[in-house]
Amino acid sequence: MDLYRRRVEAFGCFPIVIDGTTSPPSTARTQRTIGDWQADRDPRQDDQGKGFSEIENKDGWHGKALPPDMAERAIKELGGIAT
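RESULT FIELD:
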């Protein structure tokens, strides 16, 4: 499991490893593990629109495409297109 945990971490994610080797993981144990993670996590990790001041932490933009003019400004503010 350590190999898979490290792979997930390499992508900037936080893996939650639940050991089910001694017995199948119970729903209660799984919920406790997730609850522990929620209590320990940094809420700043969820900054919507991070890096583009026009929409950063503003409701209504999560998961939506930017209009073309706004997308151009976002690309510019985020450092341009990588070549």
